[in-house]
Amino acid sequence: MQHGIEMDSRVLGLLLCYVNLTLSLRRFGGLGLYVTMYVEVLYTFLKVISTFLIALTGYSLVFFILLKEQGNFADFWLALAKINIMMVGELDYTDLLVDNIGNNNTVPGTNVPYVPLPTLTFCLFLVFVLMVSIVLVNLLVGLAVGDIESIRRTASLRTLIDQALLVDGIMKSYPRFILRRMYRCSLEIKPNQNSFFNRLPFLVLISQIGFHGHAAELQIWHEHRRGVVYQ
Question: How many Cα atoms occupy the beta-carbon half-sphere of 184 within 13 Å?
Fold first, then answer.
């Protein structure tokens, strides 16, 4: 028993490690867009499916009562799992209804049919196909497409937010005495010192700002000559 629990923990831990690795890619621009799409669609799916979970539970109970002689509906949890699988298109219409009703199949060793109430079962099966397999699934697809379009419009902003949260988390993980020594709230430029290493912060600042106009570059150069401190 203990060995089984340890094995389950290892398997779940392995899965969670790779899921966490995938989610960490959200901080990168190119790959992070698709991970963000996946997470947002997952949130939408969970909200919608939690709303319709009551209806899915009702379908599970109904088919458990009507088809409990079949292995897929032997108990409530198997019926609930089968309903979720049927929701994505695996209906098994022929195996569940057509063969059993047409051939009057019964449970081996008894006279109990696999489908005791064929008319009611057939009608409820059609209702399930229309209400869940068609309407609900298409609703989920439509909401997912809408989420993807909204994410594409704000992809760069979301990437910057994730990167800022990453930097903030890294800074909070360091001890305070290290942050007091290393953190600087301003950049001081000394133009009279012509050493390359002294001018390196200014060059990095220019490359990060990314000005393209000559007038803007000239203005920054004049400020640099006057010894302006950039906050």
Answer: 7
Q: How high is the pLDDT of residue 211?
A: 43
Q: What is the pTM of this model?
A: 0.62
Q: What is the pLDDT of residue 200?
A: 54
Nearest-angstrom CA–CA distance, 45 and 73:
25
d(Cα 113, Cα 67) in Å, to the nearest integer?
A: 9
Residues 27 and 162 sit within 8 Å (Cβ to Cβ): yes
pLDDT tens for 73-130 read 888 999 998 898 888 888 888 888 888 887 777 888 788 888 888 889 889 999 999 9
3-state SS record for 127-141:
HHHHHHHHHHHHHHH
CA–CA distance, 231 with 229 (Å, rounded to integer)? 6
The dihedral sign for the CA sequence 153, 157, 161, 162: positive
- Joined together, the tokens standing for residue 28 give 């990168």
82 Rama sector, left if φ>0, alpha if ψ -120 to 50, beta otherwise: alpha
CB atoms within 10 A of CB 146: 12
Angle at 146 between CA 144 and CA 150, to 5 degrees: 115
What is d(CA 158, CA 143) in angstroms, rounded to the nearest whole number?
20
